Amino acid sequence: MVFQVILASTTILSKAAFDRGLSTFVFVFYRLAAASLFLLPLAILLARRSAPPLSFRLLAKMFLYALAGNTLSLNLANVSLKYTSTTVASAMCNSIPVITFFLALLMRMEVINLKRPSGKGKAAGITFCLAGVLVIALYAGSSLSPLNHSHHGVLLAAGHHGDSRQQAPAGHLSKGIWIMGTFLMLLACLAWSLWMVLQGLLLKEYPNKLLATLIQCLFGTVQSCVVAVAIERDPSRWKLGLDLSLLAVAYSGIVGTGVCFYLQTWCVDMKGPVFLAMWYPMSLLLTVLGSSLLGETTHLGSILGGILLVGGLYCVLWGKNKEETHTTTMPSDDHQEQSSREQGDADAAISCTPTEDEMI
């Protein structure tokens, strides 16, 4: 639950900073740099002595994983957030567990047996997920008025005065830009899902989670710096003042990236990844409420698409849980069947043994 609150607040703060003129590419660089500075002393104090040796092959893997999970996914997500809304971003995040399962299926790490209810649930979840993405992209629907109308006007004014090159708010964007932003967020979720699948394989080779995360954050900082320098040539776009932009960078870097790592790791170790994924829809509800209070317009299509994505998520989780329950009960059922057969054989042997009267 705490992780979902952090995720929703990070999304809302980032969107507000972009509306005030902060470059999305510069923001990613500052965010990963803040996360690296936060994790570095922790890694030195907690993980330096127990750190296994690093080979060039492992470093190359971490570089590529950082390219997908940090640089590519965050830049795509932030550009999408600039072109759509916080509701779309949070709704699309519900597709991450489903996309992760689909990638694991392609890599033959997961299976679908359509003859079983668990397989049908997984297939239905993937279908609902795709339908939710299409609804968000192709159907905007009517606009739902924000709860705080006065703050809505302030945010719009701040967004226009902050940067003349800034895009219009999500409610005034053209259909083509909205669709492009939605599919950019889908690509960001795909890159993040791929990172999570590959991360599980990496941790089998290098089990020190803290150092693995720190190294990937450092690689991501360098990569995102190269991207930002190549795109943002104006030095004024790199300046941070004592305003909402600085707060968004510090919060998303330290809390959104650094603290969330420990929360996710703890939750997976204690309850498993399925329990963690079950709380993803909470970020959608919190984001809708928070963005409405801050004055952002929410569209009906985003809500309907989010409901389909949540339904797809729970269908896949139900199928996974059903499959794990079936796998767990299979040995006990076989054992009971074998015990019944052994008991039957024993009874048959006893019945065939002659009594003393028969022997006489």
UniProtKB/TrEMBL annotation:
Residue stretches making up the EamA domain: 5-137, 180-317
Localization per Swiss-Prot or TrEMBL: Membrane
Stored SUPFAM superfamilies: Multidrug resistance efflux transporter EmrE
Matches recorded under InterPro entries: EamA_dom, EmrE-like, WAT1-related
GO cellular component, one term: plasma membrane
Bilayer-spanning residue ranges: 28-46, 58-77, 89-111, 123-141, 177-198, 210-231, 243-263, 275-294, 300-319
The organism's place on the tree of life at top rank: Eukaryota
Primary location class: membrane
Region (Disordered) residue spans: 326-360
Membrane topology type: Multi-pass membrane protein
This protein's record includes keyword Transmembrane: yes
Basic and acidic residues: bias regions: 326-344
GO molecular function: transmembrane transporter activity
Keywords: Membrane, Transmembrane, Transmembrane helix
Family to which this protein belongs: Belongs to the drug/metabolite transporter (DMT) superfamily. Plant drug/metabolite exporter (P-DME) (TC 2.A.7.4) family.
Protein name: WAT1-related protein
